[in-house]
Design brief:
mainly alpha; three-stranded antiparallel beta sheet; Glycosyltransferase; single chain
């Protein structure tokens, strides 16, 4: 009888545990349109077929519906979600959102979770599934990316249900943080151990731009006005103003967002352009407002190379073209060349290793079909055998690479193939047609 009682007690405990756990179990993702697009993709190049299919499915493989109904996307082989990476990983699914309610559900969940993240800590760049801060490296682009994702979702689907009270609070927190960091030395209490001067960063002058501690690579800035991130902030602040005015009908907040956007844009055009004899005026990577600048780029996005892609400028803009010629030359200290690839790398990974993110961005921002095809060939050559794109690779031996799983370049590769080779219309990040640019 004792054995029977123990067995029954164990069964009862199992039933209670099941009753407790089941309500917290998140539903499985059903992204039929994504799976169908991957399965139906055909190309005479079988290698391209395999890589496109793997790339398109990768975001879904890394995403899950969380117990609170939001959606979480880990960056890959690190068990955390980066605001920037997740926004970029979700972007390729915008192409399917208008016609697939399940994809819309996933994207709404992603946006809702990011709204919570920013309210928890606007200075953090990455979080865990249970909303703990993974890193508190203040990266301006981490505040900008969720806003541009929400704007693009709205413009693609017409769905305004994402603009909840929680999202409105996220906009408030984002704007207040950006305004505070316009004058970091005076107004901010943020510090981080990797930054010099007791974690406050090197001296800066007031420029109207927004101070940022870290680059999109998660490396500390040397000079803390990071021009690519300022460019994305300009786009995001314009998106914010439009959302505040047209959705929330708050003219005051819309005006505040536009005013900050105009300050940042003026700062970029005043302090961010540097005259280089061989190239003319080009955009610097980082400046300090005190006359110092770094001339280079990093593969992580926003980058200078990505300026048209993020919606800041056009591919035909003279300053962008000058900058692009510099970036894709041996004069750029982060441009590397090998047997299988040539492109921009990052100070975050081994010296002379190329990043697929930068190669894809080169392909997305050129108007030359031959250059697009050349980029595609290099990306295919970078495959170490798993048909996935990785963080970086040795351009002389692609079997040497960093990050076993890195979702961002795979999502961007799917977008590259769809928009540049399949004729799918690009999805904008914002409208900056009214911006004032410096004239020569």
């Amino acid at each position: 009888m004792a054995v029977v009682r123990r067995a029954l007690r164990g069964l009862a405990l199992l039933l209670v545990a099941t009753l407790v756990v089941l309500p917290l179990r998140a539903p499985a993702l059903e992204l039929r349109s994504i799976e169908r697009a991957a399965a139906d993709y055909r190309n005479p190049n079988v290698h391209l077929e395999e890589m496109f299919r793997a790339a398109l499915l990768d975001t879904g493989n890394l995403a899950q519906i969380a117990p609170d109904g939001t959606a979480y996307i880990k960056t890959g082989d690190i068990p955390a979600e980066w605001l920037r990476d997740a926004s970029a990983q979700a972007r390729s699914y915008l192409f399917f959102a208008k016609d697939d309610p399940d994809v819309r559900t996933l994207l709404r969940g992603i946006i809702a979770r990011m709204a919570k993240y920013v309210q928890i800590d606007p200075y953090a760049n990455a979080f865990t599934l249970d909303y703990h801060v993974w890193e508190q490296k203040f990266e301006l682009d981490s505040l900008a990316y969720p806003i541009t994702l929400a704007w693009s979702y709205w413009k693609t689907t017409g769905d305004t249900s994402i603009f909840t009270g929680s999202f409105a609070k996220m906009l408030d927190v984002s704007l207040a943080t950006m305004q505070r960091e316009q004058d970091h030395p005076r107004d901010s209490s943020y510090t981080e151990k990797e930054l010099p001067d007791g974690g406050k960063g090197r001296p800066v002058g007031y420029t109207g731009m927004i101070w940022t501690g870290f680059r999109p690579s998660d490396d500390a800035c040397y000079y803390n006005f990071l021009i690519p991130s300022e460019m994305l902030a300009v786009v995001a602040l314009g998106d914010m103003a439009e959302i505040e005015q047209d959705v929330y009908h708050n003219v005051v907040k819309a005006s505040a967002a536009r005013a900050l956007r105009d300050d940042v844009q003026h700062g970029i055009q005043t302090y961010g352009l540097v005259l280089v004899p061989k190239y003319g005026y080009i955009y610097a990577y980082e400046v300090d407002g005190l006359g110092h600048a770094i001339l280079t780029d990093d593969a992580n996005i926003p980058s200078l190379l990505s300026a048209p892609y993020i919606g800041y400028t056009t591919t035909s803009d003279r300053y962008y073209q000058n900058t692009r010629r510099f970036l894709l030359s041996q004069d750029n200290p982060s441009f590397y060349q090998g047997t299988y690839a040539r492109g921009i790398g990052s100070y975050h990974t081994p010296d002379h290793w190329v990043w697929p993110l930068a190669l894809i961005m080169q392909g997305l921002t050129t108007t030359n079909p031959a250059e697009k095809q050349d980029v595609l060939n290099q990306l295919l050559a970078s495959d170490p055998g798993d048909h996935l794109l990785h963080e970086s690779f040795n351009p002389n031996d692609p079997k040497q690479f960093t990050r076993e799983s890195f979702g961002w370049p795979n999502a961007l590769f799917a977008e590259f193939v769809m928009t540049q080779f399949q004729g799918v219309s690009e999805i904008p990040m914002g409208n900056t047609s009214d911006l004032k640019f410096r004239s020569e």
